[in-house]
From TrEMBL:
GO biological process: intracellular protein transport; vesicle-mediated transport
Protein's recorded name: AP-1 complex subunit mu
UniProt similarity note: Belongs to the adaptor complexes medium subunit family.
Keyword Membrane carried by entry: yes
Domain MHD: 186-452
Record key words, sorted: Membrane, Protein transport, Transport
Annotated GO CC locations: clathrin adaptor complex; endomembrane system
Pfam families noted in UniProt: Adap_comp_sub, Clat_adaptor_s
Location in the cell: Endomembrane system
Principal location listed in the UniProt entry: membrane
Keyword Transcription: no
Length: 454
């Protein structure tokens, strides 16, 4: 990416603030062309990337974004009542320019709370400093507001005298996400493996869709510049290292893995080792997905019995289909009911039942649901003798659709993962050799968990 300049305008294209980085094209001319584009091109025909040729004509098509000699390419994004635009005279990476503009907008939001014309006008001094530090001669630099705050603050717009002679370590260090000199009285690291189960079950009990979305979350409170190595029961790791016999059928084949920038990707691609220097505090180390068949952890059956239009009864049976040593906490079984029911009464073998008329459903709350258990709940409602459907057929249609929606289940099971993923080891290496305490926790929770009623 080589951007000649960046500027911010209002919705009419009037300039608010600008910065020329390379001097190869007048920024005032760029703003004039951008304003002309906004005025001459209909809103529905505008594109976030457009090219102006040597004659000042706007171009579009497959070659948009590829500036030729004497031409300019404009890349812009809309943010509330503003346009943030970059102009380049070269054949630049427009995807990178778009990313830069979005990240720059996020930096402004982190500093000022919101990105509006008023917040820009009220903070000219800081914005000029941010524009200088986030891009150098048309090349993007630091776009992490945590790092920028270490030397650009809202209260003081000038750097301290002793720091003017050299840039912050985080800008020149390969480990840009972690500052040097971090000290903690107690060195600890907390690791949570959190999995959410998306499930859709048909009325006949067939699992139509099941998917696991997982995340390895960390809270790091480690001094110095530690290097960590994380080992999982990764099937491909066992195969890459020739240790398939150690898996014993418990290896997990992860899909769609995404890492935090701190992970050494080349090392992972080579031998599946997750090696990294962690940021300080809380962050997501990695996310993954498994598109695999999963048996419903909490099964729900519903029998609905209408009685001649005067009342309706629900018989709900739920069963936990995980091992007895596990416990699901704060289980909520959400059952839709017709919008015109009244006089609710409930009887359940465990937990409590609440009717929420504004949402047209009842909620069966079970504080602790042990594995291998089965519970029953019966709900009874009265129905009005004359309903809106007697007068308006459309009301009947809407009412039927609302209460025949799927049953939804919410839960959280600690010390359990539905995929079987396990942390085999977490090694902490730091040159001072201090002792650190790693804590590992597993949690399975519901994602989009639905069971259709017959």
């Amino acid at each position: 990416m080589v951007a000649s300049g960046v500027f911010i305008t209002d919705l009419q294209g009037k300039s608010i603030i600008s910065r020329n980085y390379r001097g190869d094209f007048p920024i005032s001319k760029a703003i004039e062309l951008f304003s002309k584009y906004l005025n001459d091109v209909e809103e529905e025909s505008r594109k976030p990337i457009f090219h102006v040729d040597v004659n000042g004509d706007f171009e579009s098509g497959d070659d948009v974004g590829m500036a030729g000699p004497g031409g300019q390419t404009f890349v812009y994004v809309a943010q509330n009542n503003l346009y943030m635009c970059a102009v380049t005279t070269r054949n630049s990476n427009v995807a990178l320019i778009l990313t830069f503009l979005f990240r720059l907008g996020q930096v402004f939001k982190d500093y000022f709370g919101s990105l509006e014309e008023e917040s820009i006008r009220d903070n000219f001094v800081i914005i000029y400093e941010l524009l200088d530090e986030t891009m150098d001669h048309g090349l993007p630099q630091a776009l992490d507001s945590t790092i920028l705050r270490s030397f650009i603050t809202q209260g003081a717009n000038r750097m301290a005298e002793d720091s003017k002679s050299k840039p912050p370590v985080a800008l020149t260090n390969a480990v840009s996400w972690r500052a040097e000199g971090i000290r903690h009285k107690k060195n600890e690291i907390f690791l949570d493996v959190v999995e959410k189960l998306n499930l859709l079950v048909a009325a006949n009990g067939t699992v139509l869709h099941s998917e696991i979305n997982g995340a390895v979350k960390m809270k790091s409170f480690l001094s110095g510049m530690p290097e960590l190595k994380l080992g999982l029961n990764d099937k491909l790791m066992f195969e890459a290292t020739g240790k398939s016999n150690q898996a014993r059928g418990k290896a997990v084949e992860l899909e769609d893995i995404k890492f935090h920038q701190c992970v050494r990707l080349a090392r992972f691609e080579n031998d599946r080792t997750i090696s990294f220097i962690p940021p300080d505090g809380e962050f997501d180390l990695m996310t993954y997905r498994l598109n695999t068949h999963v048996k419903p952890l909490i099964w729900v059956e519903a029998v609905v019995e209408p009685h001649k239009g005067s009342r309706i009864e629900y018989m709900i049976k739920t069963r936990s289909q995980f091992k007895s040593r596990s416990v699901a906490n704060n289980v909520e079984i959400i059952i839709p009911v017709p919008p015109d029911v009244d006089s609710p009464s409930f009887k359940s073998s465990v937990g409590s039942v609440t009717y929420l008329p504004d949402k047209d459903h009842i909620v069966w709350n079970i504080k602790q649901f042990h594995g291998g258990r089965e519970y029953l709940m019966r709900a009874h409602f009265g129905l009005p003798s004359i309903t809106a459907s007697d007068v308006d057929p459309e009301a009947k249609k809407k009412g039927e659709n609302s209460w025949k929606a799927p049953i939804r289940v919410q839960f959280e099971i600690p010390y359990f993962t539905v995929s079987g993923i396990q942390v085999r080891y977490l090694k902490i290496i730091e040159r001072s050799g201090y002792a650190a305490l790693p804590w590992v926790r597993y949690i399975t929770a519901n994602g989009d968990y639905q069971l259709r009623m017959s």
